[in-house]
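pls design
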């Protein structure tokens, strides 16, 4: 399985318009963050989580040729406002884009993109098919996906677990029952806005506390604000198994079937992390 970080920033992105802070003026490309979104490539599917306002730019940057489905975490603009650009995939592959979301997200999509759902559509509008999901396991082709429900202030949101990988963004609270779904992970991608507390996102202390409780092998923080600080400085302050993500980061997780229990080894190569997933 491969994971591509298309964007790792908060709703405003980084740099922020009209901001002259050291992060927004940084020359380090890791301090430039598009709105948060990832692609998960499995053996049978290419699945996007969230299509924010930078969707087109992200697809072009990563040379994404096809998508099998889009999963939505929630209905805020920075997670749904790029949906119109799926029409490029409609035109190329001559099929509807499959969307997976809750009823609440479906209602928001109908409001925001009413023209997609009319009986008499304007020629060339995106063609989508909405698959409603609830807080229970579901499948996209051969891939089994487990939702993890959290709260984004008072808004219910979904994170998603694929085998031993999980992606959880835009959360300020996760119940104990839902946290049980995040045990025994190889990789956790977790919401972390900034160092100071925030009403609708985990801050750095809260994220690290959760990592210490769940004990994933590796954690990558996302939905990062310019208020977090410079990527290089904050990275040096983090525990060994916790990392700031950055746009363009790739994780490759594979299985090695062996006869004995081994300790997983973690490799870093440029912007790609290779994570063995040992199975005994």
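designed seq:
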């Amino acid at each position: 399985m491969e994971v591509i970080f298309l964007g790792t920033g908060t709703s405003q992105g980084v740099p922020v318009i009209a901001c002259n802070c050291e992060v927004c003026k940084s020359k380090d490309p890791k301090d430039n963050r598009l709105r948060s979104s990832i692609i998960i490539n499995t053996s049978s599917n290419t699945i996007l989580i969230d299509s924010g306002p930078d969707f087109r730019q992200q697809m072009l940057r990563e040379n994404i040729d096809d998508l099998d489905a889009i999963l939505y975490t929630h209905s805020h603009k920075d997670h749904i406002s790029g949906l119109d650009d799926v029409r490029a995939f409609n035109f190329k592959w001559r099929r509807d884009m499959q969307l997976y979301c809750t009823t609440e997200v479906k209602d928001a999509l109908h409001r925001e993109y009413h023209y997609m759902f009319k009986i008499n559509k304007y020629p060339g509008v995106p063609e989508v098919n909405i698959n409603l999901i609830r807080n229970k396991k579901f499948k996209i082709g051969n891939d089994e996906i487990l939702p993890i429900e959290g709260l984004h202030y008072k808004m219910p949101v979904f994170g998603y677990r694929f085998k031993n990988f999980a992606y959880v963004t835009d959360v300020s609270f996760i119940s104990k029952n839902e946290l049980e779904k995040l045990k025994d992970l190889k990789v956790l991608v977790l919401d972390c806005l900034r160092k100071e507390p925030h009403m609708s996102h985990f801050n750095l202390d809260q994220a690290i506390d959760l990592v210490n409780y769940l004990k994933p092998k590796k954690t990558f923080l996302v939905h990062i604000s310019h208020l977090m600080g410079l990527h290089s400085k904050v990275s040096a302050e983090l525990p060994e198994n916790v990392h700031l993500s950055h746009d363009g980061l790739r994780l490759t997780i594979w299985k090695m079937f062996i006869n004995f229990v081994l300790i997983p080894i973690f490799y870093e190569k440029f912007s790609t992390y290779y994570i063995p997933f040992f199975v005994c």
